[in-house]
Each structure stands twice: as C-alpha cells, then as structure tokens.
Amino acid sequence: MFKLIVFIIFSAWAVISSLGVVLFSNPVYVILWLLSALISIAGIFFVAGAELVGAIQLIIYAVAIAVFYIFVLTAVPWEKALKKDSHYRVEGVIAFPFIILLYIEMFIVFTLGVMASPKKQLKLFIERIGNAEVVGSILFSKYFIAFEIVSLVLLMGMIGAVLIGRKESQTYDGDTS
Amino acid sequence: MTAIPLEAFLTVSGLIFGIGMFGLIVRRNLITLLMSLELCLNAVNIAFVGADAHLGLVEGQIFALFIIALAAVEAAVGLGIIIAIFRYRKVESSDEVRDMRG
Predict the structure, then answer these.
(1) CATH architecture for residues A1-84
(2) Radius of gyration for the alpha carbons in chain B, expressed in angstroms and rounded
(3) CA gap A110, B6 in Å, rounded
(4) Which of A72, A132, A157, B75 has CA atoms 20 to 30 A from the CA of A64?
(5) For chain A, which residues make up each domain, given as ranges?
C-alpha cells in the first residue's frame, strides 16, 4: 500500500512535469520542467525495484544530458525564439484528435497484452541476491554483444557530433583558385 | 505490502508518451522539440521497467539501459545538428528549416 502511494505521487509529479515541458514557452523553464520529469521518473524506477536503472537515470539523464541541453541553450541566441510564438497552435488543435486516437489504440493494445501470463522465474533469485547484481550478470553474459555494440554506437555518435558541430576552419564558397 | 499493478505503469507510460508526442507536433523551437523526444524515450523506459516488475525478469531493465545510452547519443548528435543549423542558417524555429541546401 505504501509502495502504491509513493508510485502515485511520483506518477502525478511526472505527468505534471511532462505537461510543463510541452506547454511552457521559455526554453529555460522547459529544461527545468524536463529535469523535474526525469527525477520523478527515476523515482518511479526506484519504486518499481529497478535500482540500477534509477541510479543511471539520475546520473546520466538528470545530470549529463540536462547539463548538455543547458550548454547548448546558452550557446544559442534564443531571444529571437521568444519573439515568435513558441507553439504551432493550429497544428496542435488539428493533431489533438490524433493523440486521443493514439491513446485509444495504446489502451486496446495494452488490454490485449496484459493477458500474457507472468512467469516470475527470476523473482526469488532477484530477491535473494539483489537487483543490480542480477542485471549486471545478465548484461555481461547474455547481452554482452549488444552491450559492445551500444558502446560502438556511443563512439560513432561522439565522432559524428564532433564532426557536425565543429567550426569550419576554412570555407570553400568563394574559393576559385 | 501489495505490488503495484502493471496497468498503473502502462497508464503512466502511455500518458507521458502521448504528451511527448504532442510536444513533438506542436513545438516550434528545435531544442524543446528534442526535449519532447526525451520524454517519449523515458515513457518507453517506464513501460519496460514496469513490465519487468510484473514479470519478475531483468531483460527490460537491460533494454532500458540501452535506451538511456542511445538517448545520450541522440542528444549529442541532435544538438550538434542544431548548432550546425544555427551556425549556417541563423534560424532556430523548425518551420524555417525547409530546405536541405541552397
């Protein structure tokens, strides 16, 4: 019962923060709402018993990625964006029925999927030796190749971001020689 | 101590995913558009972790870790592209980026 109450608190916080992310117009307020949403989602992970994912959510998302967004936000002159309207209002009104349709479709899929039978085959194992150990042992044995490929994707993304975002030392526009 | 039902996780996940999708449609600023995308990815993570807590497995948490790593890559590359757009075109709203080149 206590768990459920904490879960409901974190979920309400997450949904309200998500609405703040979508609805506020100033980008600095939006990044603060996103930070609040990420922290509340980490709380949901902790309540669900996924300590490792919650900790990584706090460390990587709520610290690294949020700080990265703030850096880009300060590197960019966003005063011009404040003059214009921050939302597409007509498109929003048009797209709203489709979002409702998406909700209905997700509801149908979820109610079909909930009927799948739970196995609980690792439940006792997890309760005996803890969540983080089980996640680590399965991650580094069964999903080891996927883990290595993700690290390769991280390397490629880093190189690509440096290549895209770097300042060109020379331009070839007027180069006729 | 009663466990949290799976439907609660899926409801929260669906709500946040829909809100993030709506933000992807209505947002004009490119950076806030990427933030809405982060919301969508987090909603998927909630669904994975909730299904894990229901089924008593850990595979969903492993895939949640993969999703977090790929979200970091996506943020890096996406923000790099946005900075490149700012540098070359001096625009920051998504309806001004109509053409690829020229």
Answers:
(1) Up-down Bundle (1.20)
(2) 17
(3) 10
(4) A132
(5) 1-84, 88-116, 119-166
Q: Hey, what amino acid is at B42?
A: N
Q: Note whether A140 contacts B: Cβ–Cβ < 8 A.
A: no
A13 in reach of chain B (CB within 8 A): no
Number of Cβ within a 10 Å radius of residue B50: 27
Instruction: Return the residue in A9, A71, A164, A172 with the most chain B beta carbons within 10 A, the one to mutate for interface testing.
Output: A164
Put simply, whether the predicted model's pTM sits higher than 0.80 gets the answer yes
ipTM greater than cut 0.90: no
A3-22 pLDDT, tens digit per residue, is: 889 999 999 999 999 999 88
CA–CA separation, B101 and B43 (whole Å): 35
Taking only the tens place, the pLDDT of each residue in A37-63 is 999 999 999 988 888 889 988 998 888
| Cα A26 from Cα A74, distance rounded (Å) | 13
* Rounded (10°) CA dihedral A32, A37, A38, A43: 130
